[in-house]
Structure formats: C-alpha cells, structure tokens
Write a structure and sequence with these properties.
The chain is of the alpha+beta class. Helices cover 31% and strands 33% of the residues. The structure holds thymidine-5'-phosphate.
Length: 233
C-alpha cells in the first residue's frame, strides 16, 4: 500500500489513506530546535514518541477529551482523524522554564501559583510568535468561542496529565498542544511526547525531555526511554 505523502514536518510525516476522514502519522527520529536552526537525530525517538503519544491520547479520551487518535498501526505510525489544523500552539505551564524564564526574568523551577496559558501563532517564517486573544481574533485564527474551548481543554489536559505523571514520579512542567476542526467540532491533535512537554523527575528535577537535546546535555535517548518506562508502569 503506497500511501500518498500529504505533509512533511520536522518530526513527522502525514500520509493519506483510502478513507478521506483518516490519515497516518509517521514519527521520525529527526529532531530540531530553535525553529529548525539546530538539527539532529535521537535514535528510537519515532518509536518512543508514537508509543507515548498513543498512551496519552488513550488516557485523555477515557477522561472525555476529544482527540484525533484512532489507534497505533505499527511501531512508528498512528492512525488519526484528519483535522483542519488551527494555526495556534496552546502552551500550559505549571513551573517557570524555557521562554517564560527568559521573557520575565524568573528563575527556572519556580512553581507558578496557577497554571499559565499562552497562545503562539504557528508560523515558521515568524518563529511562532507569542500572541494574545485579540491577535487571534484579528487574525481570524479561531473564534472567541473556540478559544474558550481550547483554553478549557488545555487546562483539563493539564489536570489529567499532571496527576497521572506525578504518580509516576514525574513533574509536568509545561507542554504544548495543537487542535484542529473536523465534523463541525474541535479535537486535540498533533502529539504529546518529550518533544512537546517538559518532564522533570519529581524528586531530583532531572530533565526527561527534549531540553536535553536543545541544551546539549547528553543522555537524550536514555531520557526518552526512561519516560516510556515510567509511563508503562
Ligand atoms: P518554551 O518554554 O520554549 O516556550 O516551550 C514551552 C513548551 O512548549 C515546552 O514544553 C516545549 C513545547 N514546545 C514545543 O512543543 N514546540 C516548540 O516549537 C516550542 C518552542 C516549544
């Protein structure tokens, strides 16, 4: 079966299927950072991110979050509902890290009194700039009602994943979600993995995510393996 490539991103490829409402997502080992300026490979990443994303999507679906996930079809591929992607990245933060630390001059590791929700405009040419609700409205990227729904889902996902991860001795520092439209409603799309989340060991603060690649810390593949080991329990 030679499925037609519909789209190729930095870490994934999307293929058409015989069913126009479904697509296949293939997870590559390629890794990039800083809007593609830094390039590399993380051995086994495709397999591990497919497995971890599948597990997270199944957990969220059980808790009533609408997700694009249908099923994993092989080690590196998942079958998902075809969405028309909303060009926003919804970031939820529980602990100061990364760009929030840089933007506000706060120390990494400072716990936030309440989760912080941020919106970024998905545009590689612009480097995915931080935007606010009125920018979203002016861009026409999502309606105010849709934005309320995205925000509510972002916080709901945060509650579910934070509790699940803490039982596995992992602190959910922050993460990024993407959403899309299909069948007249909104679904959670993309992936949930150490590429798109910050996971810190709850006791030691050791980083178990892509920051090891972004910051040249070494032990990248081992960190992804360790996250998968903890998720399987
Ligand atoms: P940031 O601190 O660099 O803004 O990242 C916040 C969260 O979003 C972090 O968990 C990593 C994730 N993220 C992505 O998934 N894709 C991206 O392109 C960026 C910049 C961050």
């Amino acid at each position: 079966m030679a499925d037609r490539l519909l789209y190729e991103g930095k870490a994934k490829q999307v293929f058409e299927t015989d069913d126009p409402s479904l697509v296949l997502v293939y997870f590559k080992d390629d890794a990039t950072a800083f809007n593609g300026e830094k390039k590399g490979r993380i051995d086994s990443k495709g397999r591990l991110n497919n497995a971890m994303s599948s597990l997270f999507f199944e957990l969220l679906a059980k808790e009533g979050v609408p997700t694009h996930f249908v099923r994993a079809v092989d080690e590196r591929t998942m079958l998902v509902k075809k969405l028309s992607i909303i060009p926003l990245e919804v970031v939820v933060r529980n602990v100061v890290a990364g760009s929030l630390a840089r933007r506000l001059g706060w120390p990494e590791g400072k716990a936030l009194a309440k989760p912080v929700l941020e919106l970024y405009y998905k545009d590689d040419g612009l480097g995915d700039p931080l935007i606010n609700r009125s920018h979203v409205d002016a861009l026409g990227a999502a309606t105010p009602g849709e934005l309320d729904e995205l925000s509510g889902l972002g916080l709901k996902v945060n509650g579910i994943l934070s509790a699940y991860l803490l039982e596995r001795k992992v602190r959910l520092v922050d993460f990024k979600l993407e959403f899309g439209r299909a069948d007249g409603r909104i679904w959670l799309g993309d992936e949930i993995s150490p590429d798109t989340c910050r996971f810190w060991d709850a006791d030691t603060g050791e980083r178990l995510d892509k920051d090891r690649f972004r910051r040249d810390m070494g032990g990248v593949e081992e960190a992804y393996q360790e996250m998968y080991r903890r998720l399987r329990g």
